[in-house]
Amino acid sequence: MWTFGNYPRLPEVQVGNWITLHRCPDCTAYWCSVPHEPYGGYTFLTAWPYGSELFEQLNARDNATILHEWHDAVIRENWMRLSAEEVSWVEQWRDRTYRHYNPIDRGPEMKQPRFIHEVRELARYANESC
Ligand SMILES: [Zn+2]
Fold first, then answer.
1. What is the pLDDT of residue 129?
2. 3-state class (DSSP) for residue 67
3. In the chain, where are the structural domains located?
4. What is the DSSP string of 12-55?
5. Which of 35, 47, 67, 86 has its CA 20 to 30 A from that of 20?
């Protein structure tokens, strides 16, 4: 995972619904980027473990809700394993969102996930599409 403070600008493979699929030209790994509030100024990149076909299929379903819920779950489950500097950036972002309007804190008024509560649940959709 890369955070807004240091994410690499990778070529775009597919622009989805507020989520973009990128591919690293060096190692061919896929990454998904999402600009988070406030003002879309807090982009996170999360490693996409499947191909572009599954990204395209899930982007076309329910306004890409499954992709967004998976991306949020990756942030929630991994941010504490970032470097100390990056953790401090994420803490500042949590403050900017009142420790409420972000996928880590998920304040009570925020919509609860419908499809993906934990990262591992994405595998269900990958199997279903084979
Ligand atoms: Zn690479």
1. 59
2. helix
3. 12-128
4. EEEE-SS-EEEE-TTT--EEEEEEESSTT-EEEEEEE-S-HHHH
5. 86
Residue 110 Cα to ligand 1 middle (Å): 34
Walk along the chain (130 residues) in steps of 10 and give the mean pLDDT of each run: 96 98 98 96 98 97 97 98 97 97 94 95 84
**What separation in Å is there between the alpha carbon of 16 and the centre of ligand 1?**
21
By the 10 Å C-beta count (0-12 exposed, 13-18 middle, 19+ buried), 93 is classed as buried
Which residues lie at CB < 5 A from ion ligand 1? Answer: 24, 26-27, 29
Q: Which residue has the tokens 């379903």?
A: 61
pLDDT of residue 127: 82
Would you report the helix, strand and coil content of the chain in percent, each value rounded to 5? 40, 20, 45
- pLDDT of amino acid 59: 98
Q: What separation in Å is there between the alpha carbon of 30 and the centre of ligand 1?
A: 8
Q: Which of 11, 125, 107, 19 is nearest to 71 (CA)?
A: 19
